[in-house]
Amino acid sequence: MAGNEIKKEKKPNVFPQPDEIDFREFGQAGVAILVEQALRASHGLGDGLRQHLGVDLGEIMRHRPQVVQALRQIAADPERCSVTDRGGAIALLGELGGTGEIPLLEAILSCEEETLSNRCWAAYAIAKTAGPGAIDILVPYLEHPDPVFRKRTVQALAAAQTEEALPILHRVAESEEVPFVANAAVSAVRESEERLGLPPTDLPYRETDDSGGTAVELE
């Protein structure tokens, strides 16, 4: 490296565009960052909690009811809250909320006027809160005309971590016409089988190009 070259630290893209989202990447650290972003629009929490939001998930969990209430308000208020804040709130309702959040999340998922990004987050949040019940909610979106939305629905079904989703993901892997959607289903099937201790099925990845979505690297 040259003596005068300055190495710039790459900042994480906390709220990526829909074709860059990988729901599996959000662990505790991601949740804490998302909370901090999502609660920028909330005025119901004290400064003592705010200063911990980005670094201390335990503090968030100790105030969980207040946090979830704030997230509901943000997610349901497109007039006063930005798309970014609402996306973070929707995702976090999947991490911190319960089945009581499902009606709001379903409304966001089904709203044609909602952004694709936030509808994807709603699919993920439903998978995290509804468990096996997420299947009936999410399966119709596997027929959505937007292949990116179909891919995110596949990933959401995988996030539900329920064996009932496996035959559905298998069917998508075999029958989906768009390669990057089919490949997402192949990955989901393989990961689900490994997690459930099932023998792996022989589902190959398809070749992809740069025509849309994120290509899955061939193995």
Explain how this protein is built.
There is one protein chain. The longest helix is centred in the last third of the chain and has 18 residues, at 179-196. The protein is an all-alpha fold and 219 residues long. The protein is 53% helix and 0% strand. It has helices at 28-38, 47-50, 57-62, 64-75, 83-96, 102-110, 116-130, 134-138, 147-159, 166-175, 179-196. The protein contains eleven helices and no strands. The protein has a single domain (18-196), classed as Leucine-rich Repeat Variant, CATH 1.25.10. It starts with 27 loop residues before the first helix and ends in a 23-residue tail after the last helix.
Descriptors:
single chain; 219 residues; mainly alpha; Leucine-rich Repeat Variant; 11 helices; disordered N terminus
The separation of the N and C termini measures 34 Å
What is the percent of helical residues? 40-55%
Can you tell me the CATH architecture? Answer: Alpha Horseshoe
Radius of gyration: 19 Å
Number of domains: 1
CATH topology assignment: Leucine-rich Repeat Variant
* Name of the level-1 CATH class: Mainly Alpha
Task: Name the shape in a single word.
Answer: globular
Low-confidence stretches: 1-26, 41-55, 210-219
Largest beta sheet, briefly?
none
